[in-house]
Design brief:
The chain is α+β, with helices and mostly antiparallel strands. Helices cover 46% and strands 17% of the residues. The longest helix has 17 residues. The relative contact order is 0.15.
Length: 188
């Protein structure tokens, strides 16, 4: 699977100006600092919902697409149909791993939220890989967004899953948690 047609829609300047509106300030000029962006993302303030990710997975297994479609808040999904009358193939004979195209338009808020669930080690490895493929594209376009996209255990500092994988008890988890906290608390 790969990602095509990746785009960021909206700008950090627009998000910053919306933030300034909420605190009774006039619009600003120039690009906001990385520190300001990181604080807005970590606080998940509403202006980050002005920033959108548009992308399309190709050759995504249908059952992985189903996992992603379960996310509804701040994201829209368009999945290539498997309807027999549209494809000319009997849908009932298609395996669950039949490949589909899956297109999304998601706010930065949704990308952060979905990352918490889909980067979790309890998520299916194939679904984690699909989400990581998207995040690899995010990394190329917006480092600050990429840096705050972590599994729930790192975000919260502990595991809240009913059936924990136990990662939060490992030395590797504590190393990653320390690195994450240093990263999010660093300044420009």
């Amino acid at each position: 699977m790969k990602i095509n047609d990746f785009k960021i829609k909206g700008s950090w300047r627009e998000a910053a100006n919306s933030a300034r509106t909420t605190i009774n300030m006039e619009p600003g000029q120039g690009e906001p600092s990385a520190t300001w962006k990181r604080k807005m993302l970590l606080a998940e303030h509403s202006p980050i919902r002005q920033l959108l990710v548009s992308a399309k997975w190709t050759a995504l297994p249908y059952w992985v697409s189903v996992h992603l479609v379960r996310h509804k808040i701040g994201i829209e999904h368009w999945v290539r149909t498997q309807r027999s009358d549209r494809t000319g193939h009997d849908r009932n004979s298609s395996p669950q791993n039949a490949k589909v195209e899956h297109e999304i338009l998601a706010s930065y808020q949704a990308i952060i939220s979905i990352s918490r669930k889909r980067l979790c080690r309890q998520s299916a490895p194939e679904t984690r890989a699909a989400w990581q493929t998207l995040l690899n594209e995010v990394k190329k376009h917006d480092q600050e967004l990429y840096k705050v996209c972590v599994p729930d255990c790192l975000y919260r500092g502990w595991c809240m899953e009913y059936q924990s994988c136990g990662f939060h008890l490992s030395p590797q988890f504590h190393e990653q948690l320390k690195a994450y906290r240093l990263q999010i608390n660093s300044s420009d």
